[in-house]
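Module 6 notes. Inverse folding takes a fixed backbone as the condition and produces residue identities as the prediction. Think of it as a translation problem where the source language is geometry and the target language is the twenty amino acids. Below is one complete input and output pair. Work through it position by position during the lab.
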């Protein structure tokens, strides 16, 4: 599977707030928080499912991978999505190892594994 997704009975706002704190504790920051629902509705599109996309980054690890292969920037920053599905808040991310695996460089794969472990830990902690 390309993703890692967990479920929570917390509200989306509670989850996003908890994510911000848990990410910060692990050296990550939220660069951008997109309210996709609001953005689509502002464009006249009938989309009502609550859906947010957080772009997150560890500056030190971003520099490490970019120093190895500058094209890895195509995959940065990492994304975490938070959305509601049948009364349950879902929190998910594309696995960095699946994405970075496309590059085929062992040094980058090792860093992707570290990032994935950290981000999965964040999701598990906030659910």
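Target side of the pair, the amino acids:
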């Amino acid at each position: 599977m390309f993703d890692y997704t967990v479920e929570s009975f917390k509200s989306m706002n509670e989850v996003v707030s908890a994510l911000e704190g848990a990410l910060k504790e692990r050296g990550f920051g939220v660069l951008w928080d997109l309210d996709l629902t609001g953005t689509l509705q502002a464009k006249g599109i009938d989309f009502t499912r609550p859906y947010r996309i957080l772009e997150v980054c560890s500056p030190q690890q971003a520099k490490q991978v970019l120093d190895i292969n500058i094209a890895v920037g195509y995959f940065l920053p990492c994304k975490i999505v938070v959305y509601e599905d049948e009364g349950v808040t879902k929190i998910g991310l594309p696995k960095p190892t699946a994405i970075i695996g496309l590059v085929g460089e062992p040094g980058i794969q090792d860093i992707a594994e570290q990032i994935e472990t950290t981000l999965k830990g964040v999701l598990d902690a906030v659910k």
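Reference fact for the lab report: The two ends are 20 Å apart (CA to CA).
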